[in-house]
Write a structure and sequence with these properties.
The chain is mostly beta strands. It contains 1 helix and 8 strands. The strands form 3 sheets. A 4-stranded mixed β-sheet has the order 2-5-4-3. The protein has a two-stranded parallel ribbon with strand order 1-6. Strand 7 and strand 8 form a beta hairpin. It is globular and about 40 Å long. The chain starts with 6 loop residues before the first strand and ends with a strand.
């Protein structure tokens, strides 16, 4: 496993990881993976899409993530919360997640 900081992006429909994180957590040749185009606040970007396991607290999910080749940010998108209920508590800076 590999521990990293991710920013919760409630406007992102898909989770996005940096090239560095993709290389630390997988062995794919990202040059061989077809790219998908995404619309972002900075405009259109093309990214390879891979599978990763994400664990936050005791919540685990294997999901598809985009690899941003142009930026080093890691964004936890709303796709992580599919089939789950959650509360974002800004005061305590906590996210409470449970199964539906």
């Amino acid at each position: 496993s590999y521990e990293t900081i991710m920013m919760l992006d409630t406007g992102a429909s898909m989770t996005v990881i940096s090239l560095e994180l993709a290389q630390e957590t997988g062995h794919e040749d990202l040059n061989e993976i077809s790219q998908t185009t995404f619309s972002t606040i900075k405009g259109l970007i093309s990214c390879p899409v891979v599978q990763r396991e994400i664990i936050i607290g005791d919540t685990y999910k294997k999901q598809t993530v985009a690899v941003n080749l142009e930026d080093d940010s890691n964004l936890l998108g709303m796709d992580f919360f599919e089939s789950r209920e959650y509360i974002i508590d800004n005061l305590s800076k906590c996210i409470y997640i449970w199964n539906k």
